[in-house]
Amino acid sequence: MNVLFQILFTISILTNGDIKVPNSGFQPGDKASDFDLKSVDGKNYSLASFKDAKGFIVVFTCNSCPFAVMYEDRIVELSKKYGKKGYQVIAINPNDPEVKPDDSYEKMKVRAKDKGFDFPYLFDDGQKVYPAYGATKTPHVFLLDKNHIVKYIGAIDDNAEDASQVEEKYLENAIAALDKGKEPVPAVTKAIGCSIKVKSK
Amino acid sequence: MKVFTAIISLVFILSASKAQTQVLPEYDTYDSLSAAVFRNNDTTYVINFWATWCAPCVKELPYFEAFNKKYKEQKFKVVLVSLDFKRQIKSHLLPFITKNKIASEVVIMNDKKYDTWLPKVDASWSGSIPATYLVQGDKKLFAEREFANLEELEDFIFSFSKYK
User: Fold this and answer.
1) Tens digits of residue pLDDT in A25-48
2) CA dihedral A89, B131, B126, A173 (to 10 degrees)
């Protein structure tokens, strides 16, 4: 009976026109593609640049989004805490600076210096990387293992507005699971953020 | 003299309370918001998730205002759900509504545990705003997108609910 119900349920999902096709981009379990993007120090970086990394915290972020800004200090802290454990933070600005001048490469340099970023802050020039990953907003985090397999997608924690009121540190819990060779639960979280800025068609 | 002081302070209290008449409904959970906003009837609810800090949201807000003005007699109800930060409601949201003479209903969503309620709106919502959600009875349509003009918004809404 249970099986029959499940089959019917699956069919109803498959045939229901209201259900949208999942967003393109990576899901947990997928192998993330590499990139080769310029950082604020003028050098190019890719995942392959960090051969000894145990994992990667790839965070799509920017200068202009208030949600991204609220997480800047927390990203710096994460890099300090997990960098020495072998997890490399890589920040990527996916916005088109022609739409959002505050997200220009020059302004990224200023921001990285002011905030003391000790990790690459890459400019997604041509906006090819964020769609490949399926990033839709800033901030949007992708945790990868050393083989570039996506382990976690979503928010850093459950309170953007007030770091002191955080109840669940989704990303840190996911890293802890990864460190133990386990699958993070949850593997995906949802949070409000700023849409990625592209020129209108 | 005492009476005079009392009258003066009364005037102050009254004028202060008058300045504070702008009180928007606030909801701490999505369930309480949907219970308060949606009625199971033939009205199409046009729900726009926005915030004053969200530039594309602010840009498309006039189209929702125009839609509201044009169709409010036609069983369409526009509700602008503000996701503004709690500390910016007084400083940003309320002045914005006054300054721009927003006529559509505005409600404030205070549940910051996004992972618990965003999926209740739509499983596909990654969390970027603006996002627009149409509800009529049991029918729903969600879109994580912006609208470039009133026509685009009308096309989206009338693809869901015919204009009578």
Assistant:
1) 999 999 999 999 999 999 999 999
2) 70
* Mean pLDDT on A145-161: 97
Look at the block and give the residue holding tokens 């004028």. B15
pLDDT tens digits, A164-192: 999 999 999 999 999 999 999 999 999 99
A201 lies in a domain? no
Q: What sign for the dihedral angle of Cα A68, A69, A74, A80?
A: positive
Cβ contacts of B127 within 8 Å, gap of 6 or more: A136, A137, A155, A190, A191, A192, A193, B114, B118
pLDDT at B19: 44
Peptide bond into A97 cis (omega under 30): no
Please indicate whether, in this complex, the C-beta atoms of B115 and A66 are within 8 angstroms of each other: no
Domains in chain B: ranges and CATH: 20-160 (3.40.30.10)
Supply the CATH number for residue A64's domain. Answer: 3.40.30.10
Pick the residue of B91, B115, B144 with the most A CBs within 10 A to test the interface with A by mutation. B115
Residue A46 sits at the chain B interface (C-beta within 8 Å): no
- Reported as a single tens digit per residue, the pLDDT across B52-88 is 999 999 999 999 999 999 998 999 999 999 999 999 9
The answer to whether the CB atoms of B56 and A195 lie below 8 A apart is yes
A140 shares contact with chain B (CB less than 8 Å): yes
Model ipTM?
A: 0.83
**Does residue A17 form part of some domain?**
no
Could you say which of A66, A159, A190 has the minimum Cβ distance to residue B126? A190
Task: Give the chain B residue nearest A69 (alpha carbons).
Answer: B53
What is the domain count for chain A?
A: 1
Give the Cα separation of A75 and A88 in Å (integer): 11
- Pairing outcome for strands A140-145 and A55-60: antiparallel
Task: Report phi then psi at A72, rounded to 5.
Answer: -55, -50
Query: The tokens of B66 are what?
Result: 């125009």
CA distance B112 to chain A (A): 7
Nearest Cα neighbor of A119 from A74, A80, A169 is A80
